[in-house]
Amino acid sequence: MGIFSRRQTAVVERNPADDTGVSGAEAAARSVALDPALRALTGRWTIDRPHSRIGFSVRHAMVTTVRGAFADYDSTLYFDGARPSESRADLVIRVASVDTGVEQRDAHLIGRDFFDVGRYPEMAFRSTSTVHEGGETFRMTGDLTIRDVTRPVDLQLDYLGSVLDPFGAERAGFDGTTTIDRTEWGLVYNQRLKAGGTMVSEKVRLQFDISAIRSTS
After folding, report:
1. How far is CA 106 from CA 66, 69, 113, 194, in A?
2. Is residue 164 within 8 Å of 170, Cβ to Cβ?
3. 3-state secondary structure string, 94-117?
4. What is the mean predicted confidence (pLDDT) over 198-208?
5. What SS3 class is residue 67?
6. Long-range contacts for 202-206 (Cβ within 8 Å, ≥24 apart)?
7. Checking phi first, is residue 15 left (phi over 0); if not, alpha (psi -120 to 50) or beta?
8. 89 band by pLDDT with thresholds 50, 70 and 90
9. Rounded Cα–Cα distance for residues 212 and 11 (Å)
10. Side-chain half-sphere CA neighbours of 7 within 13 A
11. Which of 31, 66, 103, 142 is most solvent-facing, going by the fewest CB within 10 Å?
12. What is the per-residue pLDDT across 103-129, written as a single tens digit (0 to 9) for each?
């Protein structure tokens, strides 16, 4: 995913075809050498659930924001230090683990009006490409599946750093965010307000606060 070394602030994989019609300075800027230190980080990683959060936020009744998270999920992350564009991520979430802090609201979310967990117990994200956008910011494009509807989304990924923790685990962190229109995945339930507007916004911000640990297997 190109997200595992703070020292790597200019990861660019040069495609000679991209240099057509650009100045020498622009071509040079596109061919910045890959930091050799990244090669040591190549491998498989998993999300450390106790120190991570897969969450969302949505406007409620036009005046406040409701936040929630999913506690149960599986993850596979692969980082290629020589070719960051070959990096990939897979995330499968058990929807019934949603927690907004209010049991009645959680029950509504997993019911037929929203996730309909009886028919669609899981949702998933599977990456399709990763692009370095400069500094410590990357864009990961992937397929998001909710209620058996699959649509592409772009995540902005901000790399936070890597460290060997006191227990000997190699750990890397990043923040990922994107905003979706929930109705495009069949989540169309709503109620109109007398003063205008709706009870639940169609726009939902997805948030990935990730601490990843290198897999030993």
Report:
1. 12, 10, 12, 25
2. yes
3. EHHHEECCCHHHHHHHHCCCCCCC
4. 91
5. strand
6. 203/58, 203/59, 203/179, 204/56, 204/57, 204/58, 204/179, 204/180, 205/56, 205/57, 205/58, 205/177, 205/178, 205/179, 206/55, 206/56, 206/153, 206/155, 206/176, 206/177, 206/178, 206/179, 206/180
7. beta
8. very high
9. 20
10. 12
11. 103
12. 999 999 999 999 999 999 999 999 999
Q: What are phi and psi of 201, to 5 degrees?
A: -65, 145
CA dihedral angle for residue 149, residue 155, residue 161, residue 165, rounded to 10 degrees: -10
* CA-to-CA dists, residue 146 to 41, 49, 58, 76, 92, angstroms: 32, 21, 17, 19, 11
24 contacts: CB under 8 Å, gap ≥ 6: none
The answer to whether the beta carbons of residues 201 and 44 sit under 8 Å apart is: no
- Structure tokens, 120: 């669609």
For 161, other C-beta atoms within 10 Å of its C-beta total 14
Q: Where are the alpha helices (DSSP H) in 52-167?
A: 103-110
**Phi, psi of 147, rounded to the nearest 5 degrees:** 55, 40
C-alpha 120/C-alpha 149 separation (Å) is: 10
Interval 5-34: pLDDT, tens: 333 333 334 444 444 454 444 433 333 445
Residue from 215, 127, 216 nearest 176 by CA? 127
Helix (H, G, I), strand (E, B) or coil at 39: helix
Match 């109705």 to its residue by tokens.
Answer: 183
Q: Which amino acid is at 63?
A: V
With a CB cutoff of 8 Å and minimum separation 6, the contacts of 190 are 198, 199, 200, 202
